[in-house]
Amino acid sequence: MNKTEKRRVALLGLVGIAAGFAIAGCVETRITGVILEEDIYDRNLMVPFVRGINSELHDSMRDFSGVWWYVGSATDDFNNDGLSSSGEEILEYRNYSDRPGDWPWTQIHEAAWAGYYGVTILDDVFGDESPSHPLTARSWLISGWAERMMGELFCESVYTYGPGAGPLMGPNDHFDGSRTVQIDSIMRRSVNAMRNALAVAEAAVASGAAIPDGDVRIFDPQRIAYAAHGGIAQAAMLMGDWDLAVQHAAQVPDDFILYSHSDPVVEQNGWFDVSFQNDDFTLWNTPVHRVFQDDPRAPWIKCGEWRSDTLRTVHGSSGDIRDTGRCDFAVGYGGEFRAESNRMPLYGSLKSEIPGLLTRPDGETGEDADFPMVRGTEMLLIRAEKALMDGDLGQFANLVNQGRAVYGMDPIETPATAGALEYPNALDDAWSILDGERYTLMHLEGRRYADMRRWQHPYIAERHVINTRVSDENGPSRVVYCMPIAQIECDSNPNLTCPGVN
Questions:
Q1: Residues 111-142, buried b or exposed e (16+ Cβ, 10 A)?
Q2: Which of 139, 397, 414, 460 has the fewest CB atoms nearer than 10 Å to its CB?
Q3: Residue 45 gets which letter from DSSP?
Q4: pLDDT of residue 163 exceeding 80
């Protein structure tokens, strides 16, 4: 990912696609083909332009091999059979016998760059209006989210962005393609982008700026401001700046959610495709199945079930599993009821948000509302973790219960001790409760890796596995908490010498 021109063509090509769907109020206007850079400087194109930028981020999440799939395969988010092409590659990552090829490295970089580049274009097009325009705020937000996702997934990164992309490693640093940067630097770049998003969004609110295209979901400056506060809190927590994290987490309403929303006409939902129209993974035997099956924050549905308790085994056979009839074609799931090469029952996630079956707290449903990026309830857990670190178990319980109340859940009792992380999780002390709350709230959203790394989680440290067949065939996982730089960077960057991973 070293050639700016290649990125520019890819982004502008996407604008050409998105523009055909996105210009509201212009039913006879349809833009086809690739928009050249010299033609993009047009106010009428800025809404579809930023929608295209938004899709760059969404692409990192939605695909079969999106961020959620990589993270889930390497953690306890789901039970991966390892037999699909993506599954086989991920097993290599799980054992770190090889690097990822290019995905999602390339797409996350593309999304971050697209946001930064978008700000540059918007500044040129809107001039003095840009620092208070919701489109500029959303572009900064996209870059901040992409940077955060990069730091959550990868052990280190290499930056190749141009002017205006934010600090590399420090105020006096310059780009050096032979150097890698660590997670702290990645998160500081995320904070930088989020601070810019916040400043622009607040200026837009203060000036009474109109919501572009009337799209409250994506372009409402007040929602962007809340999301930017949340983004700062997320990144600050991951780089250990707890005062900054708590300060901004407290600014987000408890029931707030902002998604990565993308146009349902041009985007598909990878969760839905893999959960119910394929059998590449199941939630059976995961913590969300064993402990949290009644939790509204992590809804799931049993498509198949063991015929009897005596047949309940991780090495089952197709005859051991019966069809519950809950996932037939009439519901739209594709009729699958067995997973893991027909050896396990298929338990799928309703986080694919099939309309009518699941409604988020903000009332939004559909395949364009499928990847939450910032929640007020996550902000409460950030504050609860800080209270736990300070030894205030009463405040810890209060904040956890404040979040559970958003979902109509019963409160927890104040734990007797802070305790420690454990696996399997007994939920009998503050740290295990926090682990369970974060796991459940952000299940299948590509966030689990980062928590496991910063906590040195026993699931990885003690080499636990969900699927013993995969472990038996491929060997135990090594103690790893993040992915190495992708092979595409090693191949295309002549200045970088990639260290070995074997």
A1: bbbbbbbbbebbbebbeebbbbbbbbbbbbbb
A2: 414
A3: G
A4: no
Contacts of 273 (CB under 8 A, 6+ apart): 64
- CA–CA distance, 199 with 412 (Å, rounded to integer): 37
* Residue 152 · residue 108 · CB < 8 Å: no
What are the structural domains, with CATH classification, of the chain? 4-60+103-259 (1.25.40), 278-348 (no CATH), 380-459 (no CATH)
Q: What is the mean pLDDT of residues 14-27?
A: 33
What pLDDT was estimated at residue 346?
85
**How far apart are the C-alpha atoms of 430 and 304, rounded to whole Å?**
34
Longest dimension (CA), the chain: 71
- Angstrom distance (rounded) from CA 219 to CA 406: 25
**HSE of 200 in the Cβ direction (CA atoms, 13 Å)?**
28
Mean pLDDT of 474-485: 72
Contact status, residue 232 vs residue 244, Cβ threshold 8 Å: yes
Predicted pLDDT at 7? 35
CA–CA separation, 169 vs 166, rounded Å?
9
Determine the distance from the C-alpha atom of residue 168 to the mean position of all C-alpha atoms in its chain, rounded to a whole number: 23
Q: Give the length of the chain.
A: 502
Give the C-alpha distances (Å, rounded to integers) separating 408 from 334, 395, 416.
Answer: 32, 20, 24
Exposed / middle / buried, residue 382 (Cβ in 10 Å: 0-12, 13-18, 19+): buried
Using alpha carbons, select from 272, 196, 231 the residue that is nearest to residue 375: 231
CB 233 within 8 A of CB 379: yes
Encoded amino acid at 343, one letter: R
DSSP 8-state symbol, 411: P
| Amino acid making up residue 109 | H
Calculate mean pLDDT across residues 59-81: 78
